[in-house]
Amino acid sequence: MGFAVSVIRLFVFYILLVGVSSAACQEVSGGEFMRVSKDAKGEPQSLDTSIVHYVPASGSSKYPRVDLISAVHIGEGSYYTQLNRRFAKYDAVLYELVAPKGTKPVKNAEGPRSIVSTFQLGLTNLLGLEFQLDKVDYSAANFVHADTTPEQFSQQMEQRGESFLSMFMRLMAASYAHQQQVPQAALEAQLLMFVLNPDPAARSRGLKRMMAEQFKSTDVLIQALNGEEGSTLISGRNDAALAVLKEQMAEGKKTFAIFYGGGHMPDLDQKLKSQFGLKPVSVEWVQAWDLTK
């Protein structure tokens, strides 16, 4: 079962990579792009993602304004409805998708599905959630593709000496090392109880709560994957997004959203500060998963 818990962590890591009633804005306390909200008794209430607002650090101008919008790739339908309303307010929304330049996802696309797509659908059904590509309106005129192409992705991996197998093994090793520091018996018992629960609603709620709690350990996996020299999956794709941001700024646009998986945000945060002279000034929290249902 220890292996099963490691796989759960990798599922959570995948949800972060491939970031309701909004809480009032609060000052950024630093580096947190996802949280599990709990009530006074310590019971999980929701998994929340952040919208961090950046402005010029010099104070000489109001623009550009950039929002890092953390995404989880499966979430409540209401989560994506609220994001769609917010997206309409930006001059440009930069989105992730390893695909030919300018590609826009098609909602509920028909035809043969890849192994990844099959996995996504299975996970959304298991957790009673919705799939991002089917709910976000990528057809909006202000949506701008900001990611590597498959050719660029492969080329970068080759240059860095990376492979999907080596990345997977690095993640598994990091997960196993972290696992040795955390008691596993309770997690294993929980997982077995949830999986075998005959009530679909109770099974979904239990698995969502368990997976939400595992988000706390994903920073270990992200650090292991990206390393000191960066990685194609995180820093390489982030660099591609920021190159598109520069292009959009050169066109005279002023307000931007970078809509990427939550696992990309620490690296993007540092680069917005160092390369663009921006600073975070406030953060809003958006409920992505309801953990009370």
Structure description:
- The chain is built from eleven helices and nine strands.
- It has 293 residues and is α/β, with parallel strands linked by helices.
- The protein has one domain.
- The strands form two sheets. Strands 1, 2, 3, 5, 7, 8 and 9 form a seven-stranded mixed β-sheet that branches. The protein has a two-stranded antiparallel ribbon with strand order 4-6.
- Strand 1 and strand 2 form a beta hairpin.
- The longest helix has 19 residues, at 232-250.
- Mean pLDDT is 79; it is low at 1-5 and 16-30.
What can be said about this structure in brief?
With 293 residues, this protein is an alpha/beta fold. The chain has eleven helices and nine strands.
Estimated radius of gyration: 19 Å
Gap between N and C termini, in Å?
27 Å
Give the total of domains. 1
Instruction: Provide the succession of SSEs.
Output: HEEEEHEHEHEHHHHHHEHE
Question: What about the largest sheet?
Answer: 7 strands, mixed
Low-confidence stretches: 1-5, 16-30
Helix content: 40-55%
Please provide the count of β strands: 9
With helices defined by DSSP (H or I, 4 residues minimum), what is the helix count? 11
Shape: globular
Oligomer: single chain
Average predicted confidence as pLDDT: 79
Q: By helix and strand content, what is the structural category?
A: alpha/beta
